[in-house]
Amino acid sequence: MASYVLLIYLQLASSSCSLIFLSTVNSYSLIHVAPPTESNGYLRVRCNGGLNQQRTAICNAVLAARIMNATLVLPELDANSYWHDDSGFEGLYDVDHFIKTLQNDVRVVQSIPEIEKNGKIKKMKAFQLRPPRDAPISWYTTTALEKLKEHGAIYLTPFSHRLAEEINHPEYQRLRCRVNYHALVFKPHIIELSHKIVDKLRSQGHFMSIHLRFEMDMLSFAGCFDIFSPEEQKKLRKYRKENFTEKKLIYSERRAIGKCPLTPEEVGLILRAMGFDNSTRIYLAAGDLFGGERFMKPFRSMFPMLENHSSVDTSNELKENTQGLMGSAVDYMVCLLSDIFMPTYDGPSNFANNLLGHRLYSGFLTAIRPDRKSLAPIFIERENGRMRTASFEVAVRRVMLKTNFGGPHKRIPPESFYTNSWSECFCQTSASNPGDRCPDDNLVSNLDGMEQDSLGNITSKQPNDSLSTKNDDEPSKNDDPKYL
Fold it and tell me: How far is Cα 129 from Cα 60, in angstroms, rounded to an integer?
């Protein structure tokens, strides 16, 4: 990689933060209280959406169980409508590890118990509730808890975005991180396959991963149609009408404020301006790019060394173990383990947001996050012929150097807690305030049961989960389209 000096600079800019801050949620603070001996009942949840939306829902389910002192029944995962995948929790995650890791926080059982009624043995029936979107803690301590005590079991469905992210309770937020980065570990065969792919990629040097979010659902959601043919626009409008809230969206206005996903060519131009050349090895985490090769060709001409999990490994083992959500899990892990990660659209993208949070927690691993709003007028000037290549690249670099490359930063809405758990889930190695200092027995290693060299080393092996184009549900008619 000719831009090796830039790579080292970006790594140092991020990894130096790990000398000051450490992820610390796998150790307990002095105010941590174990769950009471007696439970108030059983909590069932149905986690809808794609892989990463389900992952955040699992974190919220554990927290909801903690809040209500409920026994959590292993979360149910929707058979995803796009992947047609019914793997369930047991097919993706290490169940024993999940239960053991959380034993000091909540009780977890694999199924709701059976009871005897009228001389017959049957499973306890759970009272069904639909939680409000982003429900406050008070909803769980009143409405939900009352029904739990009344019926002995409740079933919350659907359970996506059903617990507020911003909670003024550090221990609750730390529990979310403990679930996300310690308890949720993929099954061994997923981890092994991901490491196999990473080893092959890294055998030729450093590599970058890119989440290229240029697919029908995201383009329809964003309302970015005009660059496509009339037939393609017809498909996008039809998809939007069927899946998203009706709203008049004007492409030129949307693009001018950075609301459109970056095209593959724009991604390539950003990387070129930053000094990456055609020797850069790139792993693409993407599904079916809308518009096909017509949009990929300019990017491929700039960066010919493109790979995905299918091109890196053509074995039957990979084909058999990357079907449905398992393929998403492998993609996510490869992106987590890459030297640099670049999301091209980190608005309502559960995959990109969760991965950014995972890399931040895993030692402030390097990320390139394009500021689409600031870059949009620069691209428009270039397309209108009002900016030469040299001036264009200088302008792009000026914008990019102001962005965060994976280090700690204050979380400002609409940034998600799952994208940036700093500072709740971190401690300081040297802090003037004793409450901010790391515990003496802080466990620096990131994910239990994983291969871990040095946590702060960007080349170390760490656990991961997944990507995909469709593995994440975007806001639909049933969701609040807060990004529109």
Answer: 16
Q: Please give the backbone phi and psi of residue 426, each rounded to the nearest 5 degrees, phi first.
A: -135, 155
28: amino acid identity, one letter = Y
Residues across the chain: 484
Q: What are phi and psi of 127, to 5 degrees?
A: -75, 125
Structure-token pair, residue 252: 């030129």
pLDDT at 181: 94
Helices (H), 163-209: 170-178, 188-202
Q: Please answer whether residues 136 and 63 qualify as being in contact, where contact means their C-beta atoms are separated by less than 8 angstroms.
A: no
The CA-CA-CA angle for residues 63, 68, 70, to 5°, reads 85
Confirm if 350 and 56 have CB atoms less than 8 A apart: yes
What was the pLDDT predicted at 135?
98
Walking along the chain (484 residues) 10 residues at a time, the average pLDDT comes out as 50 51 58 78 94 94 98 90 74 96 95 80 91 97 98 96 94 94 94 93 94 91 93 95 89 92 96 94 89 93 92 74 80 95 82 93 91 96 91 96 87 91 77 54 38 34 32 38 28
Q: Which residues contact 3 (CB under 8 A, 6 or more apart)?
A: 274, 275, 276, 277, 280
The one-letter amino acid code at 43 reads L
- In whole angstroms, give the CA distance from residue 164 to residue 148: 20
Supply the pLDDT for residue 177: 94
Contacts of 4 by beta carbon, 8 Å cutoff, 6+ apart:
206
Predicted pLDDT of residue 233: 95
CB 30 within 8 A of CB 435: no
- The H or E element spanning position 218 is helix 216-222
Peptide bond into 304 cis (omega under 30): no
Q: What does the alpha-carbon distance between residue 299 and residue 294 come to, in Å, rounded to a whole number?
A: 10
Contact criterion met (CB below 8 Å) for 418 and 165: yes
Q: CB–CB of 280/1 below 8 Å?
A: yes
Following DSSP, what letter does each residue of 337-366 receive, concatenated? HSSEEEES--SS-HHHHHHHHHHHHTT---
